[in-house]
What does this fold into?
Amino acid sequence: MDIISATLQSYLEKLSTPESALLQKINRETHLQVLMPRMLSGHYQGMALSLLSKLLKPQCILEIGTFTGYATLCLAEGLTADGELHTVDCNLELEDRVRGYFNESDWAKQIFYHLAKADEFLSGWTKPIDLVFIDADKKNNALYYDLIFDFVKPGGIILIDNVLWSGKVLNQDKLDKDTSGIVALNEKIAADNRVEPLLLPIRDGLWVIRKK
It folds into this structure.
């Protein structure tokens, strides 16, 4: 199920802030050269991530799931001058490509790219966080949410991608295992009185969660 039609998507992108030359390059090369390019955040969602980051002006951003680095660079646009963005992924095959993109960007010295399993990496996390973007293996989203929650500052933002799962969350009478996990996560967040959550129908569904 397409939440937004291709025609409306094109209209939204046309009227939004244009992609930078580097983001256009990552978008194009990911679709031409990388498996499962649909995992890329893309122009419209990328601009949403960028704007949220710029509004928050984060000192520390944590991204769980790097893929080819498109969303990473969108989030980095809001960093303070001395801020840091830590992004973790376990796909070794993309390392050279992703490091190359980061080195081409204005935030090369502020982005720390960690190659590790997310749960193991987060087990050793100690820094206060202003902004988190969870966009990795969906079955572990609830685990990642729990692992990072206490490190998020009051007023900080947690973003979680793919939470409408192509509309499958609406099929309550025939949920597969992956969809059941996403439905459980959505209900967990909606009932969490420690946060102010807003689920946006951007791309495949994006949680914007403010910690009280």
